């Protein structure tokens, strides 16, 4: 049931959530650029998270991201060129290559975490700690417990 208030129409909520996400991510990348990572893009963050600290294969990476092995490989190629990832022999299977983060990749993820903390504090400064905590609690209440998924690039593309 619609309230009739144009600011409270059903389609506005996902747009506002997306705008909030976009605002945080844009601010993150502006600060990452100032801190020495101007080439990182939003999709790269999902890839670095999916690679993780132990590394992965191109097939597993594609699966985690919800994209084809070829699409994942293209992004990996770019991040290898930029120095964020590297390919290495898999000690468990000589036929496979592992994709691993370099120190530069780890630095980018560490800085991202710190910057996101600062951006959250900026929201706290504007909205108050209680409102930000309530927003987070409310979003947890309406999303599945396993809602953090890395397949957003594939989900947007499908």
Automatic annotation (TrEMBL):
Pfam assignment, any one: MarR_2
GO biological process: response to stress
Domain HTH marR-type: residue ranges: 1-144
Any one GO molecular-function label of the UniProt entry: DNA-binding transcription factor activity
Protein name per Swiss-Prot or TrEMBL: MarR family transcriptional regulator
Organism (species): Micromonospora wenchangensis
